[in-house]
Amino acid sequence: MDCSYINAHYLVALSLLNLLISERNKGSLPQMIMKIIKSFQSKKNYVYLVQHKDSQAILKLFSNASHYMKEKTLYYEFKTTPLLIPEVISYNDYHGFLVLEYIRSQNMLDLLENCERCHEVDKAVDLLDQVLDWLMVFHHIPYVKENQLCFHDLNLRNFISIRDTVYGIDFESIECGSFQEDVAKLIGMFLYYNPINSLFKQQVFMSLMPKLLKVTSLSKLNFEKLLHHEINCICQRRKISVNML
Fold it and tell me: Strand, coil or helix: what is 139?
């Protein structure tokens, strides 16, 4: 890991710890945060595992105030829906951070990478199927349908698997879009994690194809067109060449 990244996190952690102590002393925090245990790598924000009273929690400090307000609003919008998401324990509008329930389990990317190492195609299909089911619930939420939203950031680290169920996290990237686009993004992201478009990933993709076509109501040709568009977008962001299916 880049030393500058570690140093930046160390300095932010120190200042954040001082902030939390100050907020606690002023009675601004509904529940006490005792200490920062470790930091998680994030391109956009500062994310920490913290000791929260007698349990652990996630503290997410946003680098952008509007993104903080958007994610906070969406967490509370989704709170009363069937969508599985972490609980918001507390928040601070002035400093722009959320304290979230810590779900002690592995994210989907780690699980799928382990499936590929062990060549467990059926297990990988089942895991992606669980994410698809989560997206279907997301897209049936009235607020999402009324505003024509899509999840958009289908980074597989944003999904946590626990006891055959999936929790979704990170809502600041939600924007206008469709269910079909989300499904294509999900498959595109899966195919373009290293090793890119491997034989294993192609086998998983082809095993999932009947469900993908059924839930999106697209023909195979139209789904593949949409998938290739999403793959092109991924490659442009990463500045890598397209390895077409």
Answer: helix
Mean pLDDT of the chain: 88
State which of 73, 101, 129 marks the end of a domain.
101
The answer to whether 45 and 33 are in contact (CB under 8 A) is no
pLDDT tens by residue, 82-141: 999 999 998 989 889 999 999 999 999 999 999 999 999 999 999 999 999 999 999 999
Residue positions counted in the chain: 245
H-run or E-run covering 233 = helix 220-238
DSSP type of residue 79: T
Question: How far is 52 from 118, CA to CA, in rounded Å?
Answer: 37
Domain count, the chain: 2
**190: burial class by Cβ within 10 Å (0-12, 13-18, 19+)?**
buried
Which domain, by its residues, includes 135? Answer: 106-238
Q: Over 80: is that where the pLDDT of 21 sits?
A: no
Q: Which of 21, 11, 99 is nearest to 61 (CA)?
A: 99
Give me the helix-helix angle, 220-238 and 179-191, nearest 10°.
60
Beta bridge partners of 206: none
What integer pLDDT is reported at residue 2 of this predicted model?
A: 45
Distance CA 92, CA 220 (A): 47
DSSP state at residue 157: G
Mean pLDDT, range 67-75, rounded to an integer: 96
